[in-house]
Amino acid sequence: MVDAASIVRAFDPRESKLNILLLAVPATVYFNYFQHDENLSFITSMIAIMPLAFLMGKATEEIALRTSESVGGLLNATFGNAAEIIICVLALMTAAENAGTETEEIMINIVQASLIGSILGNLLLVMGLSFVWGGLHHSEQKFSETQVSSNGSLLLLSVIVLIIPTVFNFTVDGTAGDDGVEKLSHAAAVVLLAIYGFFLLFQLKTHSHLFATENVHHEDPNMDQKDAIILLVIATILVSWMAEILVHSVESAAEEYHLPYLFIGVILLPLFGNAAEHFTAVSVAAKNKMDLSFAISIGSSTQIAVFVAPLMVVIAWILDLPLTFEFGILETIAVFLAVTIANLTAADGKSNWLEGLMLLGTYAILGLAFYFHP
Checking CA distances to 68, which of 12, 39, 62, 74 falls within 20 to 30 Å? Predict the structure, then answer.
């Protein structure tokens, strides 16, 4: 039986102060449908996605409590990236509707930048915040080295997939180069999706014992599973609605506030869209559940790089859009550096607050680079 009271309680600001930001939902509706102000709609819809993404994370965490930490981390990472997937798909659909125009190019650039931003945000910002917040509560924390090696290898593979098309385009000029990069990206997308499928088989089935945690932290669910699923569906629908308004207001807001599209895509959209990972990963780190926290942060980056990014390329392929893995020199180098420092920091399976500050410092420097990029 559905307990409507528990679902309503999840939206109560007394349960979480972040729920106060849910006022941005009716504000977005007002500015978009009654005032027709795209600039304010952009701001309020972006703010609205944050608490809604948090509710998605809350519902997912309730469901994940009934599973192992590895499965729980996978669920949190998957639904934590749901807002990102929704925004990217809507942007691609907008690009398809405006084929041959400047809007098509802008939307494709937004999708590429958003994917890069999600990888950077999860690897540096979310993991950094988790290390800092967890480190302030515990002098040293440990997590599975198997997660580091397996996810790290997949992330390095994704970096290779980003580098090769960029190098390919520089070595082959003209139309032949563009066609080659597009074909190469389509083939690489299929390979990455297949590898990610085998990775899930490895993690959850054939070698699940390698991901088992030594210390099991028991925590009782606060919601019935059916109620958690309903909350997840409601939050997802609202996120989709806000994301649609956000995508259609990006161009106007970028011009009005003089923001580079690269900065919007790399920093702003992932920052608000990935709020679920921020709050879930950081909060469980304080409880010394670092396997779950690490699974969410690096797991989300792996999912973006090896699942969401190639999925977007395949969707664009179906929609006949020129979305490729050639994301630009700055973006590619940024991801390479982020993957490198994250792997080096987490290689020993231990974390502290200083390592977290290093990751946050790297994210701040890269963020400034994208902000000042013309």
Answer: 12
